[in-house]
Amino acid sequence: MRTAMRTQVGIVGAGPAGLVLAHLLQRRGIESVVLENRSRDYVEKRVRAGVLEYGTVQLLTETGVGDRLRREGLVHTGVELRFDGQGHRIPFDELTGGRSITVYGQQEVVKDLIRARLEAGAPLLFGVADVSLHGVDSPTPSIRFRADGQDQELQCDVIAGCDGFHGVSRDSVPAGVLTGYERAYPFAWLGILAKAPPSSEELIYTYHERGFALHSMRSPQVTRLYLQCDPDDELAAWPDERIWDELHARLATRDGFTLTEGPVLEKGITGMRSVVLEPMQYGRLFLAGDAAHIVPATGAKGLNLAVADVWVLARGLAEFYRTGSAAELDRYSATCLRRIWRGQHFSWWMTSMLHRFRGDDEFGHRLQLSQLAYVTSSRAAATTLAENYVGLPLG
Ligand code: FAD
Ligand code: PHB
What we know:
Blueprint: E1 3-6, E2 9-12, H1 16-27, E3 32-35, H2 40-45, E4 51-52, H3 54-62, H4 67-72, E5 74-76, E6 78-83, E7 86-91, H5 92-95, E8 101-103, H6 106-119, E9 124-125, E10 129-134, E11 142-147, E12 150-155, E13 158-161, E14 179-194, E15 204-207, E16 213-219, E17 222-229, H7 240-251, E18 264-278, E19 281-282, E20 285-287, E21 293-294, H8 302-323, H9 327-330, H10 332-354, H11 362-375, H12 379-390
Parallel strand pairs: 1-12, 2-3, 2-13, 3-9, 6-15, 13-20
Antiparallel strand pairs: 4-8, 5-8, 6-7, 10-11, 11-12, 14-17, 14-18, 15-16, 16-17, 18-21, 19-20
Bound molecules: flavin-adenine dinucleotide and P-hydroxybenzoic acid.
Protein backbone atom coordinates (compact mmCIF):
# COMPACT_ATOMS: atom_id res chain seq x y z
CA MET A 1 0.00 0.00 0.00
CA ARG A 2 1.30 3.43 -0.97
CA THR A 3 0.32 6.48 1.09
CA ALA A 4 -0.71 9.33 -1.23
CA MET A 5 -0.06 13.05 -0.62
CA ARG A 6 -0.65 16.08 -2.78
CA THR A 7 1.15 19.36 -3.25
CA GLN A 8 1.59 22.00 -5.92
CA VAL A 9 5.35 21.72 -6.46
CA GLY A 10 7.35 18.59 -5.59
CA ILE A 11 11.01 19.46 -4.98
CA VAL A 12 13.70 16.77 -5.11
CA GLY A 13 16.83 17.75 -3.16
CA ALA A 14 17.49 20.04 -0.19
CA GLY A 15 20.65 21.72 -1.47
CA PRO A 16 20.76 25.46 -2.18
CA ALA A 17 18.54 25.11 -5.31
CA GLY A 18 15.76 23.09 -3.64
CA LEU A 19 15.73 25.07 -0.42
CA VAL A 20 15.78 28.52 -2.03
CA LEU A 21 13.01 27.45 -4.40
CA ALA A 22 10.85 26.17 -1.53
CA HIS A 23 11.46 29.43 0.32
CA LEU A 24 10.55 31.67 -2.64
CA LEU A 25 7.41 29.64 -3.35
CA GLN A 26 6.34 29.76 0.29
CA ARG A 27 6.57 33.56 0.22
CA ARG A 28 4.29 33.59 -2.83
CA GLY A 29 1.77 31.30 -1.18
CA ILE A 30 2.62 28.29 -3.35
CA GLU A 31 2.76 24.92 -1.56
CA SER A 32 5.69 22.59 -1.97
CA VAL A 33 7.19 19.47 -0.40
CA VAL A 34 10.98 19.03 -0.32
CA LEU A 35 12.36 15.46 -0.42
CA GLU A 36 16.00 14.90 0.54
CA ASN A 37 17.72 11.52 0.62
CA ARG A 38 20.41 12.52 3.15
CA SER A 39 20.00 13.38 6.82
CA ARG A 40 19.64 16.96 8.07
CA ASP A 41 22.97 16.63 9.86
CA TYR A 42 24.71 15.50 6.68
CA VAL A 43 23.49 18.36 4.48
CA GLU A 44 24.20 20.93 7.18
CA LYS A 45 27.80 19.74 7.51
CA ARG A 46 28.68 19.27 3.84
CA VAL A 47 31.54 21.71 3.19
CA ARG A 48 31.38 23.23 -0.28
CA ALA A 49 31.07 26.71 -1.70
CA GLY A 50 31.94 29.89 0.11
CA VAL A 51 31.41 32.87 -2.18
CA LEU A 52 28.01 34.53 -2.55
CA GLU A 53 27.46 36.99 -5.38
CA TYR A 54 26.04 40.42 -4.65
CA GLY A 55 22.62 39.44 -6.07
CA THR A 56 22.51 36.18 -4.08
CA VAL A 57 23.09 38.11 -0.85
CA GLN A 58 20.42 40.65 -1.81
CA LEU A 59 17.91 37.92 -2.62
CA LEU A 60 18.48 36.05 0.66
CA THR A 61 18.33 39.27 2.65
CA GLU A 62 15.25 40.71 0.95
CA THR A 63 13.35 37.46 1.42
CA GLY A 64 14.04 37.30 5.15
CA VAL A 65 16.76 34.62 5.44
CA GLY A 66 19.77 36.92 5.53
CA ASP A 67 20.04 37.95 9.19
CA ARG A 68 22.88 35.65 10.18
CA LEU A 69 24.47 36.10 6.74
CA ARG A 70 24.56 39.88 7.33
CA ARG A 71 25.98 39.37 10.83
CA GLU A 72 28.55 36.66 10.18
CA GLY A 73 29.27 36.85 6.43
CA LEU A 74 32.53 38.53 5.43
CA VAL A 75 31.98 41.27 2.85
CA HIS A 76 34.85 41.46 0.36
CA THR A 77 35.33 44.39 -1.99
CA GLY A 78 38.16 42.78 -3.96
CA VAL A 79 40.34 39.73 -4.59
CA GLU A 80 44.03 39.26 -5.19
CA LEU A 81 45.54 37.58 -8.24
CA ARG A 82 49.05 36.38 -7.42
CA PHE A 83 51.65 35.29 -9.96
CA ASP A 84 55.37 35.61 -10.45
CA GLY A 85 55.74 36.07 -6.69
CA GLN A 86 53.61 39.23 -6.59
CA GLY A 87 50.04 40.09 -5.64
CA HIS A 88 47.70 42.33 -7.66
CA ARG A 89 44.35 43.49 -6.28
CA ILE A 90 41.15 43.63 -8.35
CA PRO A 91 38.94 46.22 -6.60
CA PHE A 92 35.36 45.05 -7.22
CA ASP A 93 33.66 48.03 -5.60
CA GLU A 94 35.58 50.56 -7.69
CA LEU A 95 35.05 48.64 -10.94
CA THR A 96 31.40 47.65 -10.52
CA GLY A 97 29.74 50.70 -8.98
CA GLY A 98 30.07 49.60 -5.37
CA ARG A 99 29.35 45.86 -5.59
CA SER A 100 30.99 43.22 -3.43
CA ILE A 101 30.85 39.50 -2.68
CA THR A 102 30.22 37.86 0.69
CA VAL A 103 32.18 34.91 2.04
CA TYR A 104 29.70 32.69 3.91
CA GLY A 105 29.79 28.89 3.83
CA GLN A 106 27.23 27.09 1.68
CA GLN A 107 26.30 24.91 4.66
CA GLU A 108 25.47 28.06 6.62
CA VAL A 109 23.08 29.16 3.85
CA VAL A 110 21.59 25.66 3.91
CA LYS A 111 21.21 25.76 7.73
CA ASP A 112 19.46 29.16 7.61
CA LEU A 113 17.01 27.96 4.94
CA ILE A 114 16.25 24.67 6.72
CA ARG A 115 15.55 26.51 9.95
CA ALA A 116 13.27 29.03 8.24
CA ARG A 117 11.34 26.24 6.52
CA LEU A 118 10.90 24.11 9.62
CA GLU A 119 9.93 27.16 11.71
CA ALA A 120 7.24 27.94 9.13
CA GLY A 121 5.96 24.37 9.59
CA ALA A 122 6.44 23.65 5.87
CA PRO A 123 7.17 20.09 4.70
CA LEU A 124 10.82 19.08 4.31
CA LEU A 125 11.56 15.35 4.57
CA PHE A 126 15.10 14.10 5.20
CA GLY A 127 16.39 10.57 4.72
CA VAL A 128 13.86 9.53 2.08
CA ALA A 129 14.86 6.53 -0.09
CA ASP A 130 14.15 5.12 -3.56
CA VAL A 131 13.00 8.41 -5.08
CA SER A 132 11.54 8.02 -8.57
CA LEU A 133 9.63 10.40 -10.85
CA HIS A 134 6.52 9.40 -12.81
CA GLY A 135 4.36 10.99 -15.50
CA VAL A 136 6.62 14.00 -15.91
CA ASP A 137 5.25 14.60 -19.42
CA SER A 138 1.66 14.62 -18.12
CA PRO A 139 -0.22 17.37 -16.20
CA THR A 140 -0.23 15.09 -13.13
CA PRO A 141 3.36 14.09 -12.38
CA SER A 142 4.22 12.30 -9.16
CA ILE A 143 7.20 11.35 -7.02
CA ARG A 144 7.41 7.95 -5.35
CA PHE A 145 9.69 7.40 -2.39
CA ARG A 146 10.08 5.50 0.85
CA ALA A 147 10.00 7.26 4.21
CA ASP A 148 9.58 5.89 7.74
CA GLY A 149 9.46 2.38 6.28
CA GLN A 150 6.42 3.30 4.21
CA ASP A 151 6.05 3.59 0.40
CA GLN A 152 4.61 6.98 -0.45
CA GLU A 153 3.48 8.92 -3.50
CA LEU A 154 3.51 12.69 -3.81
CA GLN A 155 1.18 13.96 -6.52
CA CYS A 156 2.13 17.37 -7.89
CA ASP A 157 1.40 19.90 -10.63
CA VAL A 158 5.08 20.43 -11.28
CA ILE A 159 8.35 18.75 -10.20
CA ALA A 160 11.58 20.66 -9.61
CA GLY A 161 14.64 18.43 -10.01
CA CYS A 162 17.10 20.09 -7.61
CA ASP A 163 18.99 16.90 -6.74
CA GLY A 164 22.47 17.89 -7.86
CA PHE A 165 24.79 16.28 -10.35
CA HIS A 166 24.28 12.71 -9.10
CA GLY A 167 20.52 12.91 -8.61
CA VAL A 168 17.74 10.91 -10.27
CA SER A 169 15.60 13.67 -11.83
CA ARG A 170 17.66 14.05 -14.96
CA ASP A 171 17.37 10.31 -15.66
CA SER A 172 13.57 10.63 -15.79
CA VAL A 173 13.89 12.49 -19.08
CA PRO A 174 13.72 10.07 -22.05
CA ALA A 175 16.96 9.44 -23.93
CA GLY A 176 17.54 11.83 -26.79
CA VAL A 177 15.69 14.83 -25.27
CA LEU A 178 18.65 16.41 -23.48
CA THR A 179 21.86 17.46 -25.15
CA GLY A 180 24.95 17.56 -22.95
CA TYR A 181 27.86 19.92 -23.51
CA GLU A 182 30.96 19.09 -21.56
CA ARG A 183 34.59 19.93 -20.91
CA ALA A 184 36.83 17.94 -18.58
CA TYR A 185 40.01 19.41 -17.11
CA PRO A 186 43.19 17.41 -16.44
CA PHE A 187 43.34 18.41 -12.76
CA ALA A 188 41.35 18.48 -9.52
CA TRP A 189 41.31 20.56 -6.32
CA LEU A 190 42.44 19.35 -2.96
CA GLY A 191 40.59 21.47 -0.40
CA ILE A 192 41.24 21.83 3.32
CA LEU A 193 39.55 23.66 6.13
CA ALA A 194 42.12 24.69 8.76
CA LYS A 195 41.64 26.04 12.27
CA ALA A 196 43.91 29.01 11.59
CA PRO A 197 43.19 32.70 11.16
CA PRO A 198 43.24 33.75 7.48
CA SER A 199 46.65 34.95 6.32
CA SER A 200 45.13 37.71 4.19
CA GLU A 201 41.94 39.75 4.45
CA GLU A 202 40.91 38.79 0.93
CA LEU A 203 40.85 35.73 -1.32
CA ILE A 204 44.10 35.01 -3.16
CA TYR A 205 43.99 33.20 -6.51
CA THR A 206 47.55 32.08 -7.32
CA TYR A 207 49.10 30.94 -10.56
CA HIS A 208 52.39 29.13 -9.92
CA GLU A 209 54.68 26.81 -11.88
CA ARG A 210 53.82 24.07 -9.35
CA GLY A 211 50.09 24.60 -9.95
CA PHE A 212 47.14 26.73 -8.83
CA ALA A 213 46.48 27.58 -5.16
CA LEU A 214 43.61 29.47 -3.52
CA HIS A 215 43.52 31.10 -0.13
CA SER A 216 39.96 31.61 1.11
CA MET A 217 38.33 31.63 4.53
CA ARG A 218 35.18 30.95 6.49
CA SER A 219 35.62 33.13 9.57
CA PRO A 220 38.29 35.10 11.44
CA GLN A 221 39.37 31.73 12.93
CA VAL A 222 39.02 29.37 9.97
CA THR A 223 40.94 29.33 6.67
CA ARG A 224 39.83 27.47 3.53
CA LEU A 225 42.66 26.53 1.17
CA TYR A 226 42.80 24.73 -2.16
CA LEU A 227 45.61 23.24 -4.24
CA GLN A 228 45.55 22.04 -7.82
CA CYS A 229 46.29 18.30 -7.78
CA ASP A 230 46.13 15.33 -10.11
CA PRO A 231 42.55 14.09 -10.74
CA ASP A 232 43.68 10.55 -9.84
CA ASP A 233 45.31 11.56 -6.55
CA GLU A 234 44.07 9.84 -3.40
CA LEU A 235 43.81 11.73 -0.12
CA ALA A 236 46.31 9.27 1.38
CA ALA A 237 48.96 10.75 -0.92
CA TRP A 238 48.43 14.14 0.73
CA PRO A 239 49.39 14.07 4.41
CA ASP A 240 48.97 17.46 6.11
CA GLU A 241 52.69 18.20 5.98
CA ARG A 242 52.80 17.82 2.20
CA ILE A 243 49.75 20.06 1.83
CA TRP A 244 51.28 22.85 3.93
CA ASP A 245 54.66 22.58 2.13
CA GLU A 246 52.92 22.88 -1.21
CA LEU A 247 50.76 25.80 -0.06
CA HIS A 248 53.81 27.66 1.28
CA ALA A 249 55.65 27.11 -2.01
CA ARG A 250 52.80 28.21 -4.26
CA LEU A 251 51.61 31.19 -2.21
CA ALA A 252 55.11 32.58 -1.54
CA THR A 253 55.79 36.16 -2.61
CA ARG A 254 59.01 38.04 -3.17
CA ASP A 255 58.13 40.32 -0.25
CA GLY A 256 57.78 37.47 2.26
CA PHE A 257 54.07 36.49 2.54
CA THR A 258 53.51 34.29 5.58
CA LEU A 259 50.88 31.59 5.64
CA THR A 260 49.51 30.72 9.07
CA GLU A 261 49.11 26.98 9.65
CA GLY A 262 46.63 25.26 11.94
CA PRO A 263 44.99 21.87 12.55
CA VAL A 264 43.28 20.50 9.43
CA LEU A 265 39.56 20.10 10.18
CA GLU A 266 38.43 18.73 6.83
CA LYS A 267 40.03 17.49 3.61
CA GLY A 268 38.62 16.53 0.22
CA ILE A 269 39.37 16.21 -3.50
CA THR A 270 36.97 17.70 -6.08
CA GLY A 271 37.12 17.11 -9.82
CA MET A 272 36.93 19.98 -12.28
CA ARG A 273 34.33 19.75 -15.00
CA SER A 274 32.09 21.99 -17.07
CA VAL A 275 28.72 20.48 -18.04
CA VAL A 276 25.48 21.96 -19.41
CA LEU A 277 22.34 19.98 -20.23
CA GLU A 278 19.81 21.56 -22.55
CA PRO A 279 16.91 22.12 -22.31
CA MET A 280 16.27 22.37 -18.56
CA GLN A 281 12.60 21.47 -18.91
CA TYR A 282 10.80 18.34 -20.01
CA GLY A 283 7.01 18.47 -19.66
CA ARG A 284 6.25 19.29 -16.02
CA LEU A 285 9.81 18.58 -14.85
CA PHE A 286 12.17 21.53 -14.39
CA LEU A 287 15.87 20.89 -13.69
CA ALA A 288 17.71 23.47 -11.58
CA GLY A 289 21.24 23.97 -10.24
CA ASP A 290 23.83 21.21 -10.42
CA ALA A 291 21.18 18.79 -11.75
CA ALA A 292 21.42 20.70 -15.05
CA HIS A 293 24.91 22.20 -15.06
CA ILE A 294 28.21 22.19 -13.23
CA VAL A 295 31.15 24.56 -13.40
CA PRO A 296 34.75 24.24 -12.24
CA ALA A 297 34.97 25.96 -8.84
CA THR A 298 37.52 28.58 -9.95
CA GLY A 299 34.85 31.16 -10.76
CA ALA A 300 32.83 30.49 -7.55
CA LYS A 301 29.66 30.32 -9.66
CA GLY A 302 27.97 26.95 -8.89
CA LEU A 303 25.81 27.90 -5.93
CA ASN A 304 25.05 31.31 -7.39
CA LEU A 305 23.85 29.83 -10.69
CA ALA A 306 21.66 27.40 -8.74
CA VAL A 307 20.04 30.32 -6.89
CA ALA A 308 19.55 32.27 -10.13
CA ASP A 309 17.81 29.26 -11.76
CA VAL A 310 15.25 28.88 -9.00
CA TRP A 311 14.62 32.60 -8.87
CA VAL A 312 13.52 32.39 -12.53
CA LEU A 313 11.54 29.21 -11.83
CA ALA A 314 9.71 30.75 -8.86
CA ARG A 315 8.72 33.73 -11.01
CA GLY A 316 7.37 31.41 -13.73
CA LEU A 317 5.45 29.31 -11.21
CA ALA A 318 3.97 32.43 -9.63
CA GLU A 319 2.62 33.54 -13.00
CA PHE A 320 1.35 30.02 -13.69
CA TYR A 321 -0.66 29.88 -10.46
CA ARG A 322 -1.82 33.50 -10.66
CA THR A 323 -2.97 33.59 -14.29
CA GLY A 324 -2.93 30.00 -15.54
CA SER A 325 -0.42 31.00 -18.21
CA ALA A 326 2.69 28.87 -18.70
CA ALA A 327 4.35 31.46 -20.95
CA GLU A 328 6.98 32.48 -18.40
CA LEU A 329 7.57 28.85 -17.37
CA ASP A 330 8.09 27.89 -21.00
CA ARG A 331 10.85 30.49 -21.20
CA TYR A 332 12.56 29.07 -18.07
CA SER A 333 15.23 27.07 -19.87
CA ALA A 334 16.17 29.78 -22.38
CA THR A 335 16.25 32.49 -19.69
CA CYS A 336 18.47 30.44 -17.36
CA LEU A 337 20.78 29.23 -20.10
CA ARG A 338 21.84 32.77 -21.00
CA ARG A 339 23.23 33.29 -17.50
CA ILE A 340 24.56 29.73 -17.28
CA TRP A 341 26.64 30.05 -20.44
CA ARG A 342 28.06 33.36 -19.18
CA GLY A 343 28.95 31.60 -15.92
CA GLN A 344 30.41 28.70 -17.88
CA HIS A 345 32.59 30.97 -19.95
CA PHE A 346 33.81 32.89 -16.92
CA SER A 347 34.58 29.70 -14.98
CA TRP A 348 36.41 28.16 -17.94
CA TRP A 349 38.36 31.39 -18.47
CA MET A 350 39.42 31.69 -14.81
CA THR A 351 40.30 27.98 -14.75
CA SER A 352 42.36 28.18 -17.96
CA MET A 353 44.20 31.30 -16.83
CA LEU A 354 45.13 30.03 -13.36
CA HIS A 355 46.01 26.31 -13.64
CA ARG A 356 49.11 24.54 -14.86
CA PHE A 357 48.22 22.21 -17.72
CA ARG A 358 49.95 18.85 -17.76
CA GLY A 359 52.73 18.74 -20.33
CA ASP A 360 52.10 22.40 -21.02
CA ASP A 361 54.69 24.03 -23.20
CA GLU A 362 56.48 27.29 -22.54
CA PHE A 363 54.17 28.95 -25.07
CA GLY A 364 51.04 28.16 -23.06
CA HIS A 365 52.71 29.28 -19.83
CA ARG A 366 53.68 32.59 -21.37
CA LEU A 367 50.17 33.14 -22.70
CA GLN A 368 48.81 32.67 -19.16
CA LEU A 369 51.33 35.12 -17.72
CA SER A 370 50.47 37.64 -20.42
CA GLN A 371 46.74 37.28 -19.68
CA LEU A 372 47.34 37.71 -15.94
CA ALA A 373 49.51 40.78 -16.55
CA TYR A 374 46.76 42.24 -18.75
CA VAL A 375 43.91 41.54 -16.32
CA THR A 376 45.84 43.16 -13.49
CA SER A 377 46.99 46.22 -15.42
CA SER A 378 44.11 47.16 -17.73
CA ARG A 379 41.04 48.70 -16.12
CA ALA A 380 38.88 47.30 -18.95
CA ALA A 381 40.17 43.74 -18.45
CA ALA A 382 39.92 43.97 -14.65
CA THR A 383 36.34 45.23 -14.98
CA THR A 384 35.44 42.13 -17.02
CA LEU A 385 36.70 39.93 -14.19
CA ALA A 386 35.08 42.05 -11.49
CA GLU A 387 31.59 42.29 -12.99
CA ASN A 388 31.44 38.55 -13.69
CA TYR A 389 32.80 37.69 -10.24
CA VAL A 390 30.34 39.83 -8.27
CA GLY A 391 27.64 38.51 -10.63
CA LEU A 392 25.47 40.07 -13.30
CA PRO A 393 22.10 41.35 -12.07
CA LEU A 394 19.39 38.68 -11.68
CA GLY A 395 16.64 38.82 -14.26
P1 FAD B 1 23.46 20.22 -4.36
O1 FAD B 1 24.06 21.16 -3.40
O2 FAD B 1 24.29 19.07 -4.85
O3 FAD B 1 22.12 19.68 -3.72
C1 FAD B 1 21.41 18.57 -4.22
C2 FAD B 1 20.70 17.87 -3.08
O4 FAD B 1 19.93 16.79 -3.60
C3 FAD B 1 21.67 17.28 -2.07
O5 FAD B 1 21.31 17.67 -0.78
C4 FAD B 1 21.57 15.79 -2.30
O6 FAD B 1 21.84 15.05 -1.12
C5 FAD B 1 20.13 15.66 -2.77
N1 FAD B 1 19.86 14.47 -3.57
C6 FAD B 1 20.64 13.84 -4.47
N2 FAD B 1 20.02 12.78 -4.99
C7 FAD B 1 18.81 12.72 -4.43
C8 FAD B 1 17.71 11.84 -4.56
N3 FAD B 1 17.75 10.79 -5.38
N4 FAD B 1 16.61 12.07 -3.83
C9 FAD B 1 16.54 13.13 -2.96
N5 FAD B 1 17.56 14.00 -2.80
C10 FAD B 1 18.68 13.79 -3.52
N6 FAD B 1 29.77 27.37 -5.91
C11 FAD B 1 29.79 28.72 -5.70
O7 FAD B 1 28.87 29.41 -6.13
N7 FAD B 1 30.80 29.36 -5.03
C12 FAD B 1 31.85 28.67 -4.55
O8 FAD B 1 32.72 29.27 -3.91
C13 FAD B 1 31.91 27.24 -4.78
N8 FAD B 1 32.90 26.49 -4.32
C14 FAD B 1 32.82 25.13 -4.37
C15 FAD B 1 33.85 24.40 -3.80
C16 FAD B 1 33.77 23.02 -3.83
C17 FAD B 1 34.89 22.22 -3.20
C18 FAD B 1 32.66 22.34 -4.43
C19 FAD B 1 32.55 20.83 -4.43
C20 FAD B 1 31.65 23.07 -5.02
C21 FAD B 1 31.71 24.47 -5.00
N9 FAD B 1 30.72 25.25 -5.56
C22 FAD B 1 30.78 26.62 -5.45
C23 FAD B 1 29.58 24.62 -6.23
C24 FAD B 1 28.35 24.50 -5.35
O9 FAD B 1 28.66 23.84 -4.15
C25 FAD B 1 27.21 23.77 -6.08
O10 FAD B 1 27.06 24.33 -7.35
C26 FAD B 1 25.89 23.81 -5.32
O11 FAD B 1 25.93 22.92 -4.22
C27 FAD B 1 24.69 23.47 -6.21
O12 FAD B 1 23.52 23.42 -5.45
P2 FAD B 1 22.34 22.42 -5.84
O13 FAD B 1 21.27 22.67 -4.84
O14 FAD B 1 22.03 22.56 -7.28
O15 FAD B 1 22.96 20.97 -5.68
C1 PHB C 1 35.67 28.77 -1.09
O1 PHB C 1 35.87 29.63 -0.20
O2 PHB C 1 35.31 27.62 -0.82
C2 PHB C 1 35.89 29.13 -2.52
C3 PHB C 1 36.21 30.43 -2.84
C4 PHB C 1 36.42 30.78 -4.18
C5 PHB C 1 36.29 29.81 -5.16
C6 PHB C 1 35.95 28.51 -4.82
C7 PHB C 1 35.75 28.16 -3.50
O3 PHB C 1 36.52 30.15 -6.45
